[in-house]
Amino acid sequence: MFLKALNPRWSHWQGKRVWLVGASSGIGAAVARDLLQQGARVALSARRQDALLAVAANSALASVLPMDVTDPAAWRVVHDRLIQEWGGLDLIVFCAAQYEQIRPWELQSDKVRGTIETNLSSVYYGLEVILPGLIARGNGSIALIASVAGYLGLPNATVYGPTKAALINLAELLYAELHPKGLGVYLVNPGFVKTKLTANNKFPMPAMISANEAARQIIDGIEKGQFEIHFPKRFTRLLKVIELLPYRLRLTALGQMMKQ
């Protein structure tokens, strides 16, 4: 029982219908390219149509459907079009993210609002639209791209980190609620990945990997039916150990990290 995969395993991607939200750059774009190469039908959504077209690279399997993830109505428009054209969805990947290096004394309401809307509220807008159909059909999966920044109160992530912690919590409760209904729920917690989001970081980023390697880790984890897909292990396992420490030790470790 304990060795059984928590989620459905994927033996192939040929013909699978994947809606990838946040596909214009970084991890989302890398996952999209990988899945397209494996024969999946991939709907690419994000704000920037030009970037989505570059990811699609004229693939007959790609559908470019720009949208503002912070607009609840936009989710329904794109979803209804996909259902009309494809008849259903096999996997929806929530990958849209906004990251600002912010310390507590640097908070600005517009940046706070934008990060929460993009990283967290947009997921709820999407779930409201997609879940009734998935539950009615009794199959399909969702993947939430969170972050190891959700494990601990890491430096420079005053708004970003709490939104990712919320996604971790959300993924756990979604699994408890949706798994009995036949749906898969995958939680992805990347460490440092070389993308536009991390390009301006001025602090050490240990064990950084490329977006392509991150995509491979995500797809491999989904294929194996894992619930939490975290990487690179040499970094994420260390954070998981710190997470288990009593607060006196845990906060001391965090304090040392803040000095970096």
TrEMBL record:
One GO term describing the cellular component: membrane
Transmembrane intervals: none
Keyword annotations of the record: Oxidoreductase
InterPro entries in alphabetical order: NAD(P)-bd_dom_sf (IPR036291), SDR_fam (IPR002347)
Pfam families: adh_short (PF00106)
Molecular functions (GO terms): oxidoreductase activity
The family this protein is said to belong to: Belongs to the short-chain dehydrogenases/reductases (SDR) family.
Name this protein carries in UniProt: Short-subunit dehydrogenase
Organism: Paracandidimonas soli
Lineage: Bacteria, Pseudomonadati, Pseudomonadota, Betaproteobacteria, Burkholderiales
